[in-house]
Amino acid sequence: xxxxxxxxxxxxxxxxxxxxxxxxxxxxxxxxxxxxxxxxxxxxxxxxxxxxxxxxxxxxxxxxxxxxxxxxxxxxxxxxxxxxxxxxxxxxxxxxxxxxxxxxxxxxxxxxxxxxxxxxxxxxxxxxxxxxxxxxxxxxxxxxxxxxxxxxxxxxxxxxxxxxxxxxxxxxxxxxxxxxxxxxxxxxxxxxxxxxxxxxxxxxxxxxxxxxxxxxxxxxxxxxx
Length: 225
Description:
Helix 4 runs parallel beside helix 5. It is built from eight helices and nine strands. The strands form two sheets. Strands 5-4-3-6-7-9-8 form a seven-stranded mixed sheet, sandwiched between helices. The longest helix has 16 residues, at 176-191. The protein is an alpha/beta fold.
């Protein structure tokens, strides 16, 4: 069962590599909690998450897809549907949610803007598992053609741009998406004073999309004497 992406492309319902990576990440979950799935689509992952979550927050711009997701989780777990753009949800609805233990980022391309917006809004108070699907590598040939295109995407991923920038052509390895995501998560952890651990990854044969898993935890503040 395939579905049509916003760009008009056919996408598989659920890649085996993605499912395997997500299930491995879920083994780190100590107890059920609230799950947020950004770009829930037809709910192929939602129905898996229903077995682990105490509550699901499912976000997608396509109401028809959300209705199909609803059928897959109905009667199995408490859930709420949000038919809107992910960034709008983060800005308007995320501030009222404070008990997340798992968030899934998937944007049919680069999820960097989602990720940065999320962490600007949401304050981690307990361990948070972060699942990422990044399909930016589908544009690998364009990104590595010159420094300007590479720099444009760098700006999207880096919380803080490197102070020194080399203005020249860049050799971009095929695993650059994984590199960008890891660097973004490291800088987010530094900026918000979180402890970061990379849990797992799955990279398809051609190097994209990549499926990544992280654990973020708040650092314990030193008690004042």
